[in-house]
Amino acid sequence: MVEVQHLVLFRGPFYVVVYLLLMGINVYGWRRVGVNHILIFEIDPRKHLTYSHLLELSAIFAVLTALSVLGFIYAKNLHIPRFSFPLILLITMALYLILPLPIFHLDSRLWLLKVMGRLMAAPFFSVSFADFWLGDQFNSMTIVFADFKNLLCFYVRNPFFSENYKHQKCEVEDFAINACVSCLPAWLRFAQCLRQYRDNRKSHPYLTNAGKYATVFPTILFATLMNAYRDEYETFFKNPFLWCFICFKMISTIYGLAWDILGDFGLFKVCKKDRIFLREDVIYSKNFYYFLIIENCVLRFFWIFDFPMVALSYVNFRIMESISGLLEIIRRYIWNYVRLENEHLYNVGQYRAVRDIFIAPLEDFDELEDKTSENNNFH
């Protein structure tokens, strides 16, 4: 029988599918308004994934995930161990990323692996925009890292796909490892900020930004202690670690929200009547920025609604956790639009936002003659 706890077996791949879908829409939006993401990410303009490639990849992984879920549900009819399906799906996705063959967008995959390598090696390398941008994406996918860690733990401890082994043990028993995995994305960005401070010797914005990620560590620590000792107190609200968690979570949320709006988006720099709370140069509609501010506030503070619903057992923990994870990916998708716009406008100010020039070979001699005659008429 399929139960709610089996959700975690496919949640990680599902989030990857959603992220690729939204990333494809991001790329389409950037190209539509003229934000030169290819220059910002320092990608070879002749070898990059277009929005259609990303949407196609998302669709392929969506089909594979759906087939895996169906295989899991009807495993008895197929006479195949049902826990083999999530593993096959994970291996397929991993092979796509690391396959060293000149197929399936090899250049783009190598670029991503290179950026991931530099990110994982922080703070030993200088930090480019692509490096810290990917780090921010990882911070919105902490739940994916936790799910993949639990799946790896489950398959290592249960190599023969026994139905009797409960995969929840990896979540319940490995408190310390789970905390370290949850801290990993924040640590990578924290280390990058320290490296940027070392290279530039500017306390702001680099140490200021590092402080934002530093607030994540005590938040996760007290969340871990709260869950580890929750059975030792008469009621949930008598747990002292609960109040420590709420305190640091509030600090982390306010810090992150302020940095998003003031730092990453560069808003609240103009008080003119026609664009109050915005900035001098904007690419999108003014209403979009006001929506962005409200949306970011609501999704940043969603945990205030989420937490008591789970604590008071009104909603299943896994369902609420899954909704929160999905909303965070959506928040990052919207964040991507304005963060790259802000970087693009900076490049414009530095005279670096040169548009890509695509030169296609002319194979039709009639077309060549037409273009030549047009040029002659023009002169």
Automatic annotation (TrEMBL):
Pfam families to which the protein is assigned, alphabetical: EXS
GO annotations of cellular component type: Golgi apparatus; plasma membrane
Transmembrane regions: 12-30, 51-74, 80-99, 111-134, 210-229, 241-259, 288-315
GO molecular function, one term: inositol hexakisphosphate binding
Membrane-related topology note: Multi-pass membrane protein
Keywords, comma-separated and alphabetical: Membrane, Receptor, Transmembrane, Transmembrane helix
Gene Ontology BP annotations: cellular response to phosphate starvation; phosphate ion transport
Keyword Glycoprotein: no
Annotated ranges, domain EXS: 169-371
Residue ranges that the Swiss-Prot or TrEMBL entry lists as coiled coil: none
Chief location bin: membrane
Superkingdom classification of source: Eukaryota
InterPro entries: EXS_C
Localization in the cell: Membrane
Protein name: Xenotropic and polytropic retrovirus receptor 1 homolog
Record organism: Glossina fuscipes
Lineage, broadest ranks: Eukaryota, Metazoa, Ecdysozoa, Arthropoda, Hexapoda
